[in-house]
Specification:
This protein has 711 residues and is α/β, with parallel strands linked by helices. The chain folds into 3 domains: 340 residues, Up-down Bundle (Na+/H+ antiporter like fold); 130 residues, HUPs (Rossmann fold, 3-Layer(aba) Sandwich), CATH 3.40.50.620; 164 residues, HUPs (Rossmann fold, 3-Layer(aba) Sandwich), CATH 3.40.50.620. 61% of the residues lie in helices and 8% in strands. It has 25 helices and 10 strands. A 10-stranded mixed β-sheet has the order 3-2-1-4-5-10-9-6-7-8, with helices on both faces. The chain starts with a helix and ends with a helix.
């Protein structure tokens, strides 16, 4: 009886869910290992494995509903990742180029394919137009290769992704008209206008409603699994609505990724979960499912299939290569960019399969052409994967070589961050803020610290809980972290000693909350830290999750550029703005603004930035009314012994307490008389280190330098 049960389970094609899923997991596991050794992209291996185990191969797996569901989820996931990973600044900068390339990569394959299909296959013009949409559309089948090399924001990739959406949209419009002529005998202009109007309304509704829904949800629910399910629900809702109005579901997935882009920072646990699940399960399932649909045996069924497949492969690849060549020349891009754009736009899958299904349903295409199209899909997917991997590998090598050259010059100072926690409620938000302020290439660990000065079990339990919460937040974002619990008679001394022992550059701590009427705004601990340490100290008070912040409003004092920590805090704000994808508004003295712009430019921060002059602190009152509840107000402070300190700054605590008690606030005290920046650049007035032991002479040197520059 056991043998008969085993026989039923192992009967081909497999029907038992556990056996089916086991085979799929083995393919996902072994394919990269085998094909990477053969120097062949593992995407090709996934498709070929699907061909071998599918119904047209050894018939190990049946093309059942599970592959249809997971395959559809995989292609939607692929397009969603393409939208959510694009830096919006890069997208705005290359949007025009993407639209131009999209039109080019649609028109050339469409025109050539129309003529070739008409005369090579002796088809009617309407049927030839249906076949031509296969050439004009494409699928980002090789996008995971780009993602693996970390080049999703490279210019050719952004242009190709934008061009994909334009080309697919135009191909779908053309397909609808061609099918209407073939089936009904006429072209429905009214249907086309209704589709265009509904598309405009759909995009407007998506852009208006989704940010509001996302902001509300992320502010009220911070559990990572819940947020992940919420994001996926929005993606599939947008895809479903797109299908209901007559669009392709992949357009809805891509647009939802663009709209949700700024709510999913690149260095966040949510982004890591999204990428992990997609690359581990959904996208491989889609690739295997594509392979299972391909009947390679069809090419041996007769000369007609072989002829059709050969013609379609030549037309599909040559027209996409010509389109990439023309687009590269028109947009003034290097030859390597052409190779990347060709690799990304030469793959065929989702839209081509949809055309085949429509041709089969309405009996519009000859059998030889449909079988040839299946072979074309296989060849195009292989060519796209190989071409993309070779091109992006070359681009990554070039970029790495440039980075190595820069390393021989002035060095960027990586942050050694110390996060002090004691409250489990605020520990996670403090760590997330710390992660977002790091440079993406900073591999130094964060130190999470809990200092206690008593043996009170309640305080100890809360502190350890906060420490574990902070560590989990860093681990979820894939950032190295060291946890440290320390006993000291004085908490402030414990924090300062830990900073010295770990050679930390930054201390991030929660902003003190007044406990009684005689308590100060900063509290005695913060004031002690400012007196005892010259390192950069950031005080945080955020009432909303940092990823829902709309803008950063950064207020810098006069002469801030003369502090040794000037470049450091500008870099931290640049990193934070890049990760959040929001706008940064700098309010500073007119003489300070060019130095801020210089750091932003030389460090390569491509952010939306705005500058507002402020002659003195009284002018800040005029700007204070523009700070909204969902903005993050950043005040750059100054210690009493610093160059940028003035008597007006003593009123900042009272001003914040009175007018910004319900706002999100960061107070940053830059490093003073520390090691400073070693970069003697035009935007850094300090080109030499100043040690703490030489503070009096250093202060005199700074004063002479300032007086000399103001003459």
């Amino acid at each position: 009886m056991i043998l008969s049960a085993a026989g039923r389970i192992m009967q081909l094609p497999l029907q038992q869910p556990v056996a089916i899923f086991l085979v799929v997991l083995v393919i996902i596991l072994l394919t990269p290992l085998v094909f990477n050794r053969l120097k062949i992209p593992h995407l090709v291996g996934m498709i070929l494995a699907g061909v071998l185990v599918g119904p047209h191969g050894f018939d190990v797996l049946a093309d059942d509903a599970s592959f249809e569901i997971f395959g559809q989820v995989g292609i939607l996931y692929l397009m969603f990742l393409a939208g959510v990973e694009i830096d919006m600044v890069h997208l705005r900068r290359n949007l025009k180029a993407g639209i131009i390339f999209g039109i080019i990569t649609f028109l050339i394959p469409m025109a050539v394919g129309l003529v070739v299909s008409r005369y090579a296959f002796s088809m009617a013009w309407s049927a030839a137009a249906i076949v031509a949409t296969m050439y004009a559309s494409h699928t980002l089948i090789s996008y995971p290769v780009v993602n693996r090399f970390g080049l999703s924001n490279a210019r050719p990739v952004v242009v190709a992704v934008c061009g994909t959406i334009i080309a697919v949209f135009l191909a779908l419009l053309t397909l609808g008209g061609a099918v209407g002529v073939s089936v009904q005998g006429s072209f429905g202009l009214g249907s086309l206008l209704r589709l265009l109007l509904s598309t405009g309304a759909y995009v407007a509704a998506l852009a208006y409603l989704y940010p509001k829904l996302a902001r509300f949800f992320f502010r009220n629910f911070n559990e990572s699994v819940t947020q992940f399910i919420f994001v996926l629900a929005l993606v599939f809702l947008a895809s479903l609505v797109a299908q209901l109005i007559g669009l392709e579901a992949i357009l809805g997935a891509f647009l939802s990724g663009l709209v949700l882009n700024r709510f999913v920072p690149g260095r966040s646990a949510l982004m890591r979960h999204i990428g992990f699940v997609g690359n581990a399960i959904f996208i491989p399932y889609f690739l295997i499912g594509v392979g299972m649909l391909l009947n390679v045996k069809g090419i041996f069924q007769g000369w007609g299939v072989a002829f059709a497949a050969g013609v379609m492969i030549v037309v599909a690849l040559s027209t996409k290569w010509i389109s990439a060549l023309i687009g590269q020349k028109m947009l003034g891009m290097p030859a390597l960019d052409r190779r990347i754009m060709f690799g990304l736009t030469s793959g065929k899958a989702a839209a081509t399969l949809a055309v085949i299904m429509i041709g089969y349903r309405y009996n519009l295409l000859p059998p030889d052409v449909m079988n040839g199209a299946v072979v074309m899909i296989l060849v195009c997917c292989i060519v796209a994967s190989v071409a993309t991997e070779r091109a992006v590998m070359r681009l990554r090598m070039d970029l790495t070589a440039e980075e190595l050259k820069q390393e021989h010059g002035p060095q960027r100072r990586n942050a050694r961050q110390l996060v002090a926690v004691a409250n489990p409620i605020t520990a996670e938000s403090l760590m997330r803020l710390t992660v977002l302020m790091r440079h993406p290439r900073n591999d130094l660990p964060i130190t999470a610290l809990f200092v206690r000065n008593s043996d009170d079990p309640t305080v100890t339990a809360m502190g350890r809980n906060a420490l574990q919460t902070a560590v989990q937040a860093a681990v979820a974002a894939d950032v190295p972290v060291h946890e440290l619990e320390r006993y000291d008679v004085n908490i402030g001394a414990g924090l300062v000693n830990a900073m010295k022992e770990r050679d930390c550059t930054d201390l991030i701590i929660g902003l003190h909350r007044k406990s009684n009427i005689v308590d100060t705004f900063y509290g005695s601990l913060t004031e002690q830290l400012l007196r005892s340490s010259n390192r950069m100290i950031t005080l945080s008070r955020c009432f909303i999750p940092v990823n829902t912040v709309r803008r950063l409003v950064i207020v810098a004092p006069q002469k801030a550029e003369y502090e040794t920590g000037f470049r450091m805090w500008v870099e931290r704000m640049g990193n934070l703005t890049v990760q959040l994808g929001c706008r940064a508004i700098f309010i500073a003295h007119p003489e300070t603004i060019p130095y801020i712009q210089g750091v932003i430019t030389t460090e390569g921060y491509e952010i939306r930035q705005e500058y507002r002059p402020m002659s003195d602190w009284d002018d800040f009152i005029l700007h204070a009314g523009t700070v909204e509840d969902d903005d993050l107000l950043v005040i750059i402070g100054a210690r009493r012994t610093s160059i940028s300190f003035s008597a007006d700054m003593e009123n900042i605590p009272n001003f914040l307490s009175r007018y910004f008690s319900r706002h999100n606030v960061l107070v940053v005290y830059p490093e003073q008389f520390g090691s400073g920046s070693e970069l003697p650049t035009p935007i850094d007035p300090l080109s030499q280190s100043i040690s703490t032991s030489a503070a009096p002479s250093a202060a005199w040197s700074l004063l002479r330098r300032f007086l000399g520059s103001s003459r």
